[in-house]
Amino acid sequence: xxxxxxxxxFNSLTQRLFVELREQGHDVSVEFDINDAVALEAVQLFQPExxxxxxxxxxxxxxxxxxxxxxxxxxxxxxxxxxxxxxxAILNQxxxxxxxxxxxxxxxxxxxxxxxSEFPMRQASKASxxxxxxxxxxxxxxxxxxxxxxxxxxxxxxxxxxxxxxRGRPRPLIQQSDRTIDWQQDDTxxxxxxxxxxxGAPGVLDHLFGRELFIYDARPEPTLCGKAGExxxxxxxxxxxxxxxxxxxxxxxxxxxxxxxxxxxxxxxxAAELEAVPxxxxxxxxxxxxxxxxxxxxxxxxxxxxxxxAMSTAQCEELRRAYAEARRRDTRVIVLMGGPDFWxxxxxxxxxxxxxxxxDESWLNINAIDDLAAEIIDTTxxxxxxALHGNAGAGGVFLARAADLVWGHHGVVLNPHYKDMGNLFGxxxxxxxxxxxxxxxxxxxxxxxxxxxxxxxxxxxGLVDAWFGxxxxxxxxxxxxxxxxxxxxxxxxxxLEEKLHRRRTDEASKPLSRYREEELEKMKLNFYGFDPSxxxxxxxxxxxxxxxxxxxxxARHRRSQPAAAxx
Length: 567
Ligand code: COA
Known about the structure:
Blueprint: E1 2-7, H1 12-23, E2 27-32, H2 36-46, E3 50-53, H3 62-65, E4 70-74, H4 85-91, E5 96-103, E6 113-120, H5 126-151, H6 188-197, E7 204-208, E8 211-221, E9 231-235, E10 238-242, E11 247-254, E12 264-265, H7 266-269, E13 291-296, E14 299-304, H8 313-328, E15 333-338, E16 342-344, H9 349-354, H10 358-377, E17 383-388, E18 391-393, H11 395-401, E19 405-408, E20 413-415, H12 430-449, E21 453-454, H13 455-460, E22 466-467, H14 472-488, H15 492-509, H16 512-528, H17 533-542
Parallel strand pairs: 1-2, 1-3, 3-4, 14-15, 15-17, 16-18, 17-19, 18-20, 19-22
Antiparallel strand pairs: 4-5, 5-6, 7-8, 8-11, 9-10, 10-11, 11-12, 13-14, 20-21
Helix pairs in contact: 1-5, 4-6, 8-10, 10-11, 10-16, 11-12
The structure holds coenzyme A.
Residues 11-12, 127, 200-201, 263, 308-310, 345-350, 391, 393-395, 415, 418, 420-421, 424 line the site of coenzyme A (COA).
């Protein structure tokens, strides 16, 4: 079926649906919802049989929904209406939530219902619930709705508030006042809930050291406590603030009035104010533990839950130290776990943007990632596995490929390309890794396509070695089983021997250092050359400058159009 996605942006949910519906055999094209005329033009060009709106911030114009079935994905249970569905669900401590696929009509979120899917709520940030539970439920509900539409005889059900199963209600746009933290009164759970309900956007507005700041990336501190509201410690990029009955770590802040008005690590934004605050080293019990190591049955599991998967120079260095320590352990397999939401998205573009010299910081950051990638590739003492619990993008994909094996679960989406970031050449030894694992033809295809891919395609392309588990829980269980089987299997020694042999042969034919030099030569031009494309693209990304047109890689209906017809 020809399906047009009308969407505010090509976000994680849209990417996952794009991957899934294409795998189901549909012809999917995407148009960003920039204005009514552009949307209408896309409809005329593509002549879709069905329109799906995975992520919209405005209503679909009547000129479209009157003539085409438009299925809107609403991140709420049946009957829920309004633009702050998940925010309210978290704040109101809903036990279960859902996704409803409804047909656009003249009233927002009130159209006839084609399908829905529900899930138990998890204590996590809004963005995390969106990227995980909501996305999985949306895939289920949209697939069902599309199948029903294709069947031709399904009658969608009108929204009926008298129906006992319709639990949702219309809710207004949430305001900052709905989640203002009262540091004297709120307990830790309440503080976390308020922060999480607004994380990733817009963040909870708060005051610290006389500054008005939005706060993000919160986790509970198990042991420290202090006078409610006071900042009592710092650790890595995070600060620790006491609550009435404990304390929370806050990893990221945004000061809309500052020179760099975007999210930054808390200790970066408040460097001067935090000088006198005691710094603590995380241990098993306390601290902001972005990096964690666990060991079981000769398998080491290295977790690195970096906010948004972004890895700054300091974080790469810290991770490299932790990895080196993991290598020194008497284990057989090291599993690089990444974080629960992202495995890695490469260099930390916000930290780079805020640096005195963005070019210098880019250089430091890419070298720090390369140092880490080199250590992984060069590991001959262990079999290494990258376990993708969440998505990976750009350098993060190739960093994963530096491991001997890449495993993921069914819902993982990879973006194995750099070019969208102002034609960035990319490093992380991708010029070695991609032909080595994908072969020259697939390597060329991956680099050219600039499209997200699911694990099925990534596996066919050599980017992923195995995918398993219907959901994350099953993935984790099977992951441990597989890692232990790898460590104790009869082929362990020969596998390690083969790896050593392969590495020696590859090194003799072209040393790793040469790949790095060649890649960094090109990156130097991206960072310091005459063409400012990378700096412009990074600025637009960090400042979230809205796209003025849909990239032709995904707006397939515009590809054969002459330039004048594509605006
Ligand atoms: N540095 C800093 N922040 C990053 C980041 C990075 N490398 N990658 C993602 N983020 C942030 C986004 O700004 C966004 O922030 P928010 O919480 O304020 O909304 C959040 O992570 C989620 O990213 P988003 O783009 O909304 O996620 P997505 O799932 O829709 O898209 C990617 C995933 C990987 C395609 C996209 O984030 C991307 O292109 N990232 C940049 C990758 C890159 O070029 N890295 C540098 C080269 S190695």
